[in-house]
Amino acid sequence: MKIPILYELECFIHKLKRAVRVKVNWLCHTKHMKHYSHILMLGKNCEPAFYFLRQFGFVDSNLFAWANINEKTMLSVLSTPAILLSGELRPVRGGGGMIQHIPTGFLFHGRSSDYTTASKDTLHNDIEELKSRLRYLIQKFETSLHSKQTKLFILTVPSTINPEQYLLDIHRVLQLTTQHFAMLCILEQKDKTPGILALQTGTLFVRFVDHFAPSNDVINLKAGDPKGWAKIS
Q1: How far lies 3's CA from each of 6, 10, 12, 45, in Å?
Q2: Angle at Cα 41 formed by Cα 226 and Cα 67, nearest 5°?
Q3: Can you tell me the distance from the alpha carbon of 19 to that of 176, in angstroms, rounded to the nearest whole number?
């Protein structure tokens, strides 16, 4: 039988060794981590923002983080974000509380959860609130672009487009509008090709999840790939 005080000392030493080992492993891991002053999400939908929030406990608000973007018009919006301040904003009835910018097809969350039976006053007030929010987020986004601090842009790439060309086009626009940046591009495993992998450089990273969740079900862990997202984070 162990003497109690010696047993307690043995347990303490064991816990201390374990804590030191964990700390050393963490230091070795973080030694190779890259650090960025700004993390800016470029869409496709809310999924990256949700998993970033789940992993780290916070997510900074930015223009595209909670938007459902349209890849066909994304290059134009990224080049000139103020385009979102012109043209009609129309609530999507039965669309989960989304408001669409008609010229670009971008979807943004409104204050209401559903506009199917919303009154005229509610529609007007929510559209005005979104306009105000867009003005603020556009200014914030452009300030980040002009900053000399390091920036990481995160974007998901769906299978409905040519991923190689899309990534190259986004990277080209960013090169023209900002500096000191890197891109983290997230695709589904089915789109993992030699051509995609060959795009990687010291500032363009490509990672994969098994599959994306449906755009209207991103907070359902069973619908997405939480383990895949955790590895990326």
Answers
A1: 5, 10, 14, 60
A2: 90
A3: 47
Helix axes 71-79, 163-177, angle to 10 degrees: 10
Residues 6+ apart with CB under 8 A from 22: none
Q: Encoding tokens for residue 161?
A: 């487009």
Q: What pTM was estimated for this model as a whole?
A: 0.79
Closest CA to 156 of 84, 231, 215, 109: 215
Task: Burial-class residue 127 by CB neighbours within 10 Å (0-12, 13-18, 19+).
Answer: middle
- Which tens digit of pLDDT belongs to each residue from 19-47? 555 444 444 444 445 678 888 989 776 78
Q: Are strands 98-101 and 106-109 parallel, antiparallel or unpaired?
A: antiparallel
pLDDT tens digits for range 11-21: 555 565 565 55
Q: Give the span between the Cα atoms of 89 and 220, in whole angstroms.
A: 28
For residues 106 and 34, what is the distance between their CA atoms, to the nearest angstrom?
31
In this prediction, residues 186-210 reach a mean pLDDT of 93
Side chain identity, residue 47: E
Q: Specify whether the CB–CB gap between 186 and 157 falls below 8 A.
A: yes
Distance of alpha carbon 141 from alpha carbon 83, whole angstroms: 13
Q: Where are the alpha helices (DSSP H) in the chain?
A: 4-31, 47-56, 71-79, 120-146, 163-177, 194-197, 226-232
- Predicted confidence (pLDDT) at residue 165 exceeds the cutoff of 80: yes
